[in-house]
Amino acid sequence: MDAYSAILPAPVSPTEALGRGGGFLTDATERALRMIQLGSRLPAGQAAALVSGTQRPSSVR
């Protein structure tokens, strides 16, 4: 596993989580697919270096 993301964007009550579960799941799926898309654009080896913490993107420095 290289990344993970919570389905809920913030703490919510169980009632709200169940009531809005479909929307929360849709949003979490979109975020996950964006992470996959971003990772696929990185040069070979770059994604592994970012995940392992050995190198940060230049915009973070």
Binned strand content = under 5%
Q: Main β-sheet: number of strands, strand sense, barrel status?
A: none
Total number of helical segments?
Answer: 3
What is the averaged pLDDT score? 79
Radius of gyration: 15 Å
Task: Report low-confidence residues grouped into runs of 5 or more.
Answer: none
Could you give the distance between the termini?
A: 25 Å
Helix content, binned percent: 55-70%
Q: Given the C-alpha coordinates, what overall shape results?
A: elongated
What report would you give on this structure?
The protein has helices at 14-19, 21-41, 46-52. It is mainly alpha-helical.
SSE layout and pairings?
Layout: H1 14-19, H2 21-41, H3 46-52
Short description:
The protein has 61 residues and is mostly helical. It has helices spanning 14-19, 21-41, 46-52. Helices cover 56% and strands 0% of the residues.
Tags for this model:
mainly alpha; single chain; 61 residues
